[in-house]
Amino acid sequence: MAAFPKDFLWGAATAAYQVEGAHNEDGKGLSIWDVFSHLPGTTYQNTNGDVAVDHYHCMQEDVALMAEMGLQSYRFSISWPRLLPNGRGEVNEAGVKFYSDLIDTLLAHNIVPMITLYHWDLPQALQDEGGWEVRSTAEAFEEYARLCYSRYGDRVKLWATFNETIVFIGHGYITGSHPPSVRDPGRAIQACHQVFIAHALAVKAFREMKIAGEIGFVNVLQPHTALTNSAEDKVATELADAIHTHWLYDPVLKGHYPEALLAQTQAIWGVPRFEAGDDELLRNNLCDFIGLNYYRRETVVANPGETSTASNHNGEPNSGAEFGFKDLFKFVRNPDGVYTDWDWEIWPQGLTDGIMMIKERYGDIPMYITENGLGAKDPIVDGEIVDQPRIDYLSMHIEAMENAIAKGADVRGYYPWSFIDLLSWLNGYKKQYGFVYVDHNQNLARKRKKSYFWYQSVIASHGEQR
Ligand code: BGP
Fold this sequence. Notes:
Largest sheet: 8 strands, parallel, barrel
Structural class: alpha/beta
Shape: globular
Order of helices and strands: EHHHEHHEHHEHHEEHHHEEEHEEEHEEEH
Number of helices: 15
CATH class: Alpha Beta
Strand order of the largest sheet: 1-2-3-4-5-7-10-13
Strand content: 5-15%
Number of domains: 1
Bound molecules: 6-O-phosphono-beta-D-galactopyranose
């Protein structure tokens, strides 16, 4: 018998900008990604999500593929500017209808919808007013969340406010590789604070509107391992945990920042700046569950004196640097590690360890693995997509998740990234994650990969056959 609870959900995930296309159709407003991806040189080979994989027009076909696979839950995000072209105010009913139809189609096939309200596509109109650095954006987010609850709350029970704050704030305000392309740690910390406030306002609204469901937050799950046993590397690893985990999980699961780090950021940068009532707002609006996106761990060493807004070998904010601290730590390649073509370490044990780390720090919080997957260039053999490495990767991670459940963790669902091949933010269409292949040379025709049939039997056997 597999250790998966009876109600455990076998799902898959996507995000609006990465699949929908129709970027300027039916009254949709522009998002920061629509604008940013059109600036020359900002993305891989100047790829963009104007058409993406045309899910906006292929929705029925895509949900039919989910149903045939036996999918039990689908995690997708809503494009804020498709509903509110200016970020607030006038509602675009055509956009509201698209997601309403999607939800109805999913439910008709017994697929449980999980909505992410913000997967990085901020309305450009709000960016023009200061984006995540200003409180008015958090207030507009509450208005947008209330609109979604009022239109979909009768049918949707699983809601997440934000996806991976470390990534859109880290890239948006430290490395500058995502919009709005700022490189300023102090501004990053303040923008991150407004995101936590926006989350708390949306949770408060969820409770006030008595939506019969659960609301959570999705974070990167990134366990850290010291490269050596030296005291310096151990201290460095604790700091990496504080910055990459505690800073991002504590406000939504404990209702406050980790105190020592808060004292340091306020001493160095004078941020985050609190407004009256922020403390209480955070404290009183905790998550019902936490979503964990797990791809890899990071190996940590003490950093001898470097400080910058540089990025690590994955092109991401280079540890300690994002908080403006010197002499802290950095991420390095693990000499014994197995890496993907994009240099992400494959380390399934990290999923077990990460889940247990969350349980240890935050108690019995329900968890969903909201992303996990292998980005690869899939081989095509005699017209078939034989993505065996993806099957191996997912299979090992399902086992790792099962081990955490056996140790008592309350894991309620698994959403591999991604249901279908889609746009990778900075890697274009070359980095594939899907169970379904999309032929960009043939009208975006869909084709089932080997992993599609494999996951079908995983689901049918409730995780036993893998
Ligand atoms: C996560 C994002 C996803 C997706 C995934 C893979 O950080 O939530 O949207 O993009 O990573 O990332 P990439 O496409 O860069 O390989």
